[in-house]
Design goal:
By secondary structure, the chain is an alpha/beta fold. Helix content is 34%, strand content 23%. It binds adenosine-5'-triphosphate and magnesium ion (MG).
Length: 317
């Protein structure tokens, strides 16, 4: 073994059983995240991104497979080890307007995780000041006295991020961190996330359906489709030369500077969704312009197509 990954996922599944049948929300994921690595998890609505994030943070139990954090099996953590995990791995909420208690001042919201972690009062003050500087809200005295309704969306998202960072985690899951914000404030938050990444050496998964965000913040990109990872590679390679037909369609819909080919958007066939049997074959076969016999009977495994670049497709890519 060379380095131990910070996060290591093997055969991870989450199937939901409802009156409508079984939803294979997460259907066999394998990936690793190194210390300090920022990974984008890209995919359309319902592809299983949020479920994956919740599994990684042990907010929901898996149906199968394994997650290792710092080498330890996350499902078997108990007592002090579980408490440590809860400080080391943090969630950044999607909607800053829902993420903070409306009756709490920013001081109360930021103090809460510190109190739960047993941090003494004097140190709590120092940590709050430091983390607010880190998220570029330097006027701590006035920020800490403010209630959520007195803040803009961009300011709130900075406090939400501060709350996730205040226990100095090794890993964060940011689920659509800017999707609720106006376009004009998004760039500021994205810049901040880049600064935080560089300053803290934090490993992170940024969940998004927005190629632009992932391109801006993430060194590596995982593309998810119907509960499976169908492409995994350096972001620059995935964007410049997407291999999987689904990724190609996804990328073709956004303008990319210096792309290998400046393509017209690839239009996919209508999504048949629910009627497709996802237990066998490729989950993209009903919409894929290149699907052939093998795609109906055999689930494509992730395989290398270039350096550090994997694709789950039977085509010769
Ligand atoms: N608690 C649940 N019970 C039943 N089905 C669920 C549950 N949570 C998620 N699902 C289903 O699992 C699938 C994946 O959902 P998930 O929320 O992970 O997708 P997503 O990629 O985050 O989508 P979005 O981009 O819309 O946030 C969907 O079909 C969803 O309806
Ligand atoms: Mg989601």
């Amino acid at each position: 073994m060379t380095d131990t990954a910070l996060v290591e996922v093997r055969g991870l599944t989450k199937h939901f059983t409802t009156s409508g049948g079984v939803t294979r929300a997460v259907d066999g994921l394998d990936f690793r995240i190194s210390r300090g690595e920022t990974v984008g998890l890209l995919g359309e609505s319902g592809s299983g991104k949020t479920t994956t994030g919740r599994l990684l943070l042990r907010l929901t139990p898996p149906s199968g497979g394994e997650i290792r954090f710092n080498g330890a099996d996350v499902a078997s953590l108990r007592g002090a080890a579980l408490k440590t995990f809860r400080t080391q791995a943090q969630l950044v909420f999607q909607n800053p307007f829902d993420a903070l208690n409306p009756r709490f001042t920013m001081r109360q919201s930021l103090a809460e995780p510190l109190i739960n972690a047993g941090v003494a009062k004097a140190e709590r003050e120092d940590r709050m000041q430091a983390v607010l500087r880190q998220v570029h809200l330097p006027d701590a005295a006035s920020v800490l006295a403010t209630f959520p309704h007195q803040m803009s969306g961009g300011q709130l998202q900075r406090v939400v991020l501060a709350r996730a960072l205040i226990l100095e985690p090794d890993f964060i899951v940011a689920d659509e961190p800017v999707s609720m914000l106006d376009v004009s404030v998004r760039a500021g938050i994205l810049n901040l996330m880049r600064d935080v990444r560089d300053a803290m050496g934090l490993a992170a998964i940024y969940i998004s359906h927005d190629v632009t965000l992932v391109r801006y913040v993430c060194a590596r990109t995982l593309v998810m489709y119907r509960g499976r990872i169908i492409e995994d590679g350096p972001t620059a390679d995935v964007v410049r030369r997407p291999r999987h037909p689904y990724t190609q369609a996804l990328i073709s819909a956004v303008p990319v500077p210096r792309a290998q080919q400046n393509r017209a958007p690839i239009l996919l066939r209508h999504n048949r969704g629910g009627s497709l049997d996802l237990a066998v074959g490729c989950g993209f076969r009903d919409r894929c312009p290149h699907a052939f016999d093998r795609c109906v009977v055999e689930k494509p495994a992730l395989r290398p197509v270039a350096s550090a670049h994997l694709t789950a497709c039977h085509l010769d890519l």
